[in-house]
């Protein structure tokens, strides 16, 4: 299954690990790359020195391509320069328009993937030189910039970017999703929620148990619920006691929400976690983990077991092949 994306980025399979800050350790990034996909590390939230340590660690764990994700809502050219100095070959840029970050990365020989929420956003990034576009549908977990579902968004972006590979994101957690994405013109899939149940993921057991038990109806898309630390950034997460408290109070605005200022959890490294804080529930969290922002996409209903990342990648690819074979017999 060698698509245009695979050829351009030097990977065996069209499966990309979505960058998920705080819960994707170096080992998971390397495992996805070693399995033939493309691992992406979200390192925009750590210091430059920590970024360098992670990049070097991933390199010690794999000789396959991998990338680093940077968040344009928290832009740091120093972080990008650190990536380039460490020889990172793929840079993923997310949220606001990439501007000089994209052109600078390209000038140093890196390949750039830009995550877009609509066709105009994608076309602007391609005009700047983006090597691939992640079409992030509204079904996606975590922070979601667009408002269009994957089924409509993917072909819309495919139609405006020419020969540039498109990665389909949002609600994709198995091989049927990969087969559907390819049929819509995408060249790979960008998978997050499924990899939260990878054996290598750094997720809290409470978070994991909710992921494994949830249906497609158990997530909510919120404009400004978990906004402490990252305001004005719509997101999708599992419904929980915090979202219910807020909903029951009539969705009040910032400053009037019930439980504001409550410390609901803490971690040795990150300190106290407030209710309504944007925080991935990592394994070291202590306290009311269920009340924290448990990011998940609508594809969570397909997450049923913990597996090594290698088996997840290969399972997606094999199921996609079988699905496409069945379709050919119609």
Describe this structure in words.
With 330 residues, the chain is of the alpha/beta class. Helices cover 35% and strands 18% of the residues. The strands form three sheets. The chain has an eight-stranded parallel beta sheet with strand order 1-9-8-6-5-4-3-2. Helix 6 links the parallel strand 5 (111-116) and strand 6. Helix 2 runs parallel beside helix 3 (48-61), helix 3 packs parallel to helix 4 (77-85) and helix 8 crosses helix 11 (309-328). The protein is globular and about 50 Å long. The two termini are 21 Å apart. The model has no long low-confidence stretch (mean pLDDT 96).
Summarize the model shown:
Helix content is 35%, strand content 18%. The protein has helices at 4-9, 26-34, 48-61, 77-85, 99-107, 119-128, 150-160, 175-183, 205-213, 241-248, 309-328, and strands spanning 15-17, 39-42, 66-71, 90-94, 111-116, 132-136, 142-143, 166-169, 188-191, 219-222, 235-238, 263-267, 271-274, 286-287. Strands 1-9-8-6-5-4-3-2 form an eight-stranded parallel beta sheet. Strands 7-11-10 form a three-stranded antiparallel beta sheet, with no helix packed on it.
């Amino acid at each position: 299954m060698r698509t245009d994306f695979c050829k351009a980025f030097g990977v065996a399979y069209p499966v990309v690990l979505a960058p998920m800050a705080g819960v994707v350790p170096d080992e998971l990034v390397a495992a996805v790359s070693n399995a033939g996909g493309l691992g992406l590390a979200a390192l925009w939230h750590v210091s430059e020195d920590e970024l360098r340590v992670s990049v070097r660690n991933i390199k010690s764990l794999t000789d396959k391509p991998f990338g680093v994700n940077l968040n344009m809502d928290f832009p740091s050219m120093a972080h990008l320069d650190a990536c380039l100095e460490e020889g990172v070959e793929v840079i993923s840029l997310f949220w606001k328009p990439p501007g000089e970050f994209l052109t600078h990365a390209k000038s140093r020989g890196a390949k750039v993937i830009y995550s877009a929420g609509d066709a105009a956003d994608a076309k602007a990034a391609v005009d700047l030189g983006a090597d691939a576009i992640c079409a992030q549908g509204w079904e996606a977990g975590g922070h979601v910039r667009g408002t269009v579902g994957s089924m409509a968004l993917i072909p819309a972006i495919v139609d405006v970017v020419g020969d540039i590979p498109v990665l389909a994101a949002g609600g994709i957690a198995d091989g049927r999703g990969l087969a559907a994405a390819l049929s819509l013109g995408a060249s790979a899939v960008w998978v997050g929620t499924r990899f939260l149940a990878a054996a290598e993921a750094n997720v809290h057991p409470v978070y994991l148990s909710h992921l494994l038990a949830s249906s497609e109806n158990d997530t909510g898309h919120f404009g400004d619920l978990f906004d402490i630390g990252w305001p004005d950034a719509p997101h999708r997460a599992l419904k929980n006691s915090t979202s219910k408290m807020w909903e029951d109070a009539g969705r009040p605005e910032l400053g009037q929400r019930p439980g504001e200022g409550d410390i609901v959890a803490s971690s040795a490294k990150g300190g106290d976690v407030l209710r309504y804080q944007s925080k991935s529930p990592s394994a070291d969290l202590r306290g009311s983990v269920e009340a924290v922002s448990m990011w998940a996409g609508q594809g969570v209903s397909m997450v049923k077991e913990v597996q090594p990342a290698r088996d997840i990648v290969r399972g997606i690819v094999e199921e996609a092949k079988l699905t496409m074979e069945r379709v050919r017999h119609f």
